[in-house]
Design brief:
By secondary structure, this protein is α/β, with parallel strands linked by helices. The chain contains 8 helices and 10 strands. The chain has 2 domains: 153 residues, 3-Layer(aba) Sandwich (Alpha/beta knot); 77 residues, tRNA(m1g37)methyltransferase, domain 2 (Trp Operon Repressor, Chain A). 34% of the residues lie in helices and 17% in strands. Strands 2-1-6-5-8 form a 5-stranded parallel beta sheet, with helices on both faces. The chain has a 3-stranded mixed beta sheet with strand order 3-4-7. Strands 9-10 form a two-stranded antiparallel sheet. β9 and β10 form a beta hairpin. It starts with a strand and ends with a helix.
Amino acid sequence: MRIDILSLFPAMFEGPFGDSITRRAVENGILDIKITNPRDFAEGKHQQMDDSPFGGGSGMVIKPEPMFKAVRHVKETTNYAKRRVLLMSPEGSVFNQGKARELAQYDQLIFICGHYEGFDARISENLADEIISIGDFVLTGGELPAMMITDAVSRMLPGVLGSEESAPTDSFYNGLLEHPQYTRPREFEGMVVPDVLLSGDHAKIAKWRREKSLEITLRNRPDLLETAELTDEDIKYLNKLREQNIQK
């Protein structure tokens, strides 16, 4: 996958993309990440990227010309049939695991990171294919959201994770939060690993993990259960948990 990020602060990406899973994916040829500074496409001596808004108001607004030129340059210098231009903005639809799986099907993602007061509306209306938010809060710019989405999407690509089973067991992959994990030592300060995990019975372990996943999701994020893929056994177990809670 090719990932292009348009940012006025390209140095911000050196740390996050220079280590861990993302770095290995780049080294292994699974990911190709390029950062473009749209200021390079701005005109004038000072290469001005922003201007005051028409109609008045506080703050500065990113101008359309350099952003359009930058995106067109990226498209013209790459050759990917299936690509999508993503604008990072609080006004977009909220990013989730389902969106990560969807975006992982593209050959190229082009991220537009804003700053200052926002974008000229012609950028969001005519340049971006989609506007994405990472939550109901405001950040200084779109760089952090672009990093987070890149990380989440890259985990969905074959060969990025060390184990092909890692992604399907992550929280949110199947609509539920992940079950508890344990490792050595078996006992630590009186806290003991559940016996079922040491039984060697894979069917029992799978059942325990599924039930714990349902319990944690019901307790911490019950809203996820409304869209999660649940079996009849899952629904029976959830009803049992709800009855026990009422009785308590």
